[in-house]
Amino acid sequence: MWFQKSFSLGPKRRGFHLVTEEIIAQLPELADVTVGLLHLQLLHTSASLSLNENADPTVRQDFESFFNRTVRENEPWYRHDYEGPDDMPAHLKSSLLGTSLILPISKGRLALGTWQGIYLGEHRNSGAERRIIATLQGE
Hints:
alpha+beta; 5-stranded antiparallel β-sheet; 3-stranded antiparallel β-sheet; elongated
């Protein structure tokens, strides 16, 4: 079985947001899959998807602090600054973290570790609605 759909995640402020349940709510088709894979592709170049700690929100705050210190705004060598000082750093963070995930499905559910959740990294100061294409493969 193959299935594909696109959906949006609502606008988020800058930072790392746990969006696991928001994504699952968009994919009731998961329940029909005994074993399979879910590929999520974020259709943006200034945000990211990653898998990490789902319990303690300070982890997401620490992610934001780390990436803001590692990839700073207003660096004099940035040439791509048409959309403001957060634009080029957002693209770099997106490239470092990635825009896609491949997740296993078992018995109609995402087969994640106990403490794992899907993060949307919103790297722009003014976050917008973010589009995702989900491709489901399984039986």
